[in-house]
Amino acid sequence: MSNKGRSTPRVVCCAIPIARAAGKVLIISSRKRPDNWVLPKGGWEQSDGALEQAALREAFEEAGVRGKITRFVTTIPSASSTYHFYELDVASLEQEWLESKERKREWVDYAEAVQRISWKAELAQGLQLSSLAPKR
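Structure tokens predicted for Nudix hydrolase domain-containing protein (136 residues):
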């Protein structure tokens, strides 16, 4: 994967939307690959300020999620991007949101989420380091 003309890897902020009481994760369909599932994520923008703000913005734009970042999970570097993962405790879901016509969303348990996003190794790895992962 290329850096698309960038000299440094892209900074990607990823939300792990959680319904704690139910022990569920909200996953969304990929726009580029509609049959595949992902976590809400996207590039950090200077207007975001903090990386956590970018994760909140992406969760709202891509999944209609409102909530609070409760935990930094990990940073995962790849050749083209550096992923920063944050747990987001979901307070509410909007019925209409920016990308609602382009994406599906679904609450699933942890194991199902890992399975569905495993095609994207960085996302699965980030989720596996979250507080939802079974204790070893």
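The longest strand covers residues 65-77.
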